[in-house]
Amino acid sequence: MQTNTDEFLAWLKTQIPLLEHLGIDELVWDGRALELPTPLAPNVNDKGTGFGGSQAAIATVAGWCLTTLCLRERGLDCDVVIADSHLKYLKPVTRNFVTRVALDMPEDAENLAARVRERGKARLQLTVQVCCREEVCLEMQGLYVAINRDSA
């Protein structure tokens, strides 16, 4: 079942009010990869470049969205949290940017769902990138944990 991304994003903004302030108005999802195009203007710092805190928040949310979408599309209602993350700020963000995250392997979503069904919870390691002009400006390694609400 493919998710209606407009409905998902509208719901997400009710759950995480910060997203309204970050200027995220679009979510591109193909079942394996997710992109969040984002304007620079609401995320700018005193130097006129992308604020590191905004980038970190958007990267964290992108991984959360991918994990949540993978599970919802497989009929699972889970609490998803980030358990660990490591950020590398590689270059300044100087214009509108896009945050990208994808499953390493197509079967990762099925494996994640199978572990949740078997154990009631599962972990997913993701690499999230914030890109400006196709250059990686931030890279985040994030470990997400999904806990089945039905077994909690």
What can you see in these coordinates?
It comes from Marinobacterium alkalitolerans. This is YiiD C-terminal domain-containing protein. InterPro entries: HotDog_dom_sf, YiiD_C. With 152 residues, this protein is an alpha+beta fold. It has one domain (5-148): Thiol Ester Dehydrase, Chain A. The protein contains 4 helices and 6 strands; from the N terminus they run ααββαββαββ. A 6-stranded antiparallel β-sheet has the order 1-2-4-5-6-3. The longest helix is centred in the middle third of the chain and has 21 residues, at 52-72.
Chain-wise SSE layout:
Blueprint: H1 5-15, H2 18-22, E1 28-29, E2 33-38, H3 52-72, E3 78-89, E4 97-102, H4 108-119, E5 121-132, E6 135-148
Antiparallel strand pairs: 1-2, 2-4, 3-6, 4-5, 5-6
Domain Thioesterase putative: 10-147
Protein name: YiiD C-terminal domain-containing protein
Pfam families: YiiD_C (PF09500)
Summarize the structure.
The protein has helices at residues 5-15, 18-22, 52-72, 108-119, and strands spanning 28-29, 33-38, 78-89, 97-102, 121-132, 135-148. With 152 residues, it is of the alpha+beta class.
Classified by CATH, the class is: Alpha Beta
Mind describing the biggest β-sheet?
Answer: 6 strands, antiparallel
Strand order of the largest sheet: 1-2-4-5-6-3
What would you say the CATH architecture is? Roll
Organism: Marinobacterium alkalitolerans
Domain Thioesterase putative: 10-147
Protein name: YiiD C-terminal domain-containing protein
